[in-house]
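ARCHIVE CARD
CATEGORY: sequence design from structure
SOURCE FIELD: tokenized fold
FIELD CONTENT:
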């Protein structure tokens, strides 16, 4: 099945004159960048947006992946952290983040004579992702959606191509860890990054540190199978999380699941984003 999935993705990308791939280094954008380079060659450029919401480890891994695969790659600084509508962190935060991204990379796409491509897959369409509205307004394309690839298919095709990212855990931006309604600041993002780095160093490779209470409370999510181990290491976890800058650390007994913060959305007054 993966052969036909890869063929569909190649065919979809071949329909473009050129592509600027928004490349975070995650499993989705890595596959898109690798196949776009294979199909388009010099008519493809990968761009990584650098801001306080990008963890340093993710930035290093993105650069290394691009270097290993040999495709053109540049970094651009985005200013979403300086935009009040983004920092307010209401239900439309991702819309404002994507708007800042497009503002930064549209000149590159114009210079290359191509369109902006995002690593969105079919499974992403059912989640709360206001950034997709911003993408539609700016004319960005999602080749993996058009080719019918789910998240599982993305990993399957990545393994077929021997990509190092095939089994990489999901890694959303650091801002996704801040409770809706609490302001997103460089300080709280740094606190989250330090805490997650420390938790991983204790052996919890898959984890999320969710910030609540204006950045004072860390709600730690680990997979359900790791909860008992986290309880056994509660003193160490509490210490490293508080050393990262939080006043309190709590282990979520519900376990890790992507998009857990979306449970707070019904509690917010939703503002429209144009």
């Amino acid at each position: 099945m993966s052969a036909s999935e890869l063929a569909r993705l190649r065919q979809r990308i071949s329909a473009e004159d050129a592509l600027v791939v928004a490349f975070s280094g995650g499993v989705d954008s890595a596959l898109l960048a690798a196949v776009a380079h294979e199909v388009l060659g010099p008519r493809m450029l990968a761009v990584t947006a650098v801001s306080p919401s990008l963890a340093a480890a993710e930035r290093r891994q993105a650069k290394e992946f691009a270097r290993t695969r040999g495709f053109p790659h540049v970094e651009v600084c985005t200013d979403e952290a300086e935009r009040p509508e983004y920092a307010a962190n209401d239900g439309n935060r991702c819309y404002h983040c994507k708007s800042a991204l497009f503002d930064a990379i549209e000149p590159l796409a114009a210079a290359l004579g191509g369109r902006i491509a995002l690593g969105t897959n079919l499974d992403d369409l059912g989640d709360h992702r206001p950034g997709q509205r911003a993408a539609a307004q700016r004319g960005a394309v999602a080749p993996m959606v058009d080719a019918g690839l789910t998240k599982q298919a993305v990993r399957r095709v990545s393994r077929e191509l021997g990509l190092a990212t095939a089994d990489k855990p999901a890694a959303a931006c650091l801002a996704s860890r801040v409770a809706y309604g609490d302001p997103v600041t460089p300080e709280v993002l740094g606190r989250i990054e330090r805490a997650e780095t420390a938790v991983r160093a204790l052996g919890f490779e898959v984890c999320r540190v969710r910030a609540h209470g204006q950045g004072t409370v860390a709600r730690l999510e680990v997979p359900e199978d790791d909860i008992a181990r986290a309880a056994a290491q509660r003193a160490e976890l509490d210490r490293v999380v508080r050393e990262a800058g939080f006043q309190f650390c709590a282990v979520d007994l519900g376990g890790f699941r992507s998009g857990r913060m979306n449970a707070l959305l019904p509690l917010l007054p939703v503002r429209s984003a144009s």
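CARD ANNOTATION: The longest strand covers residues 44-50. The chain has two domains: 5-161, 174-267.
SHELF: design records, drawer C
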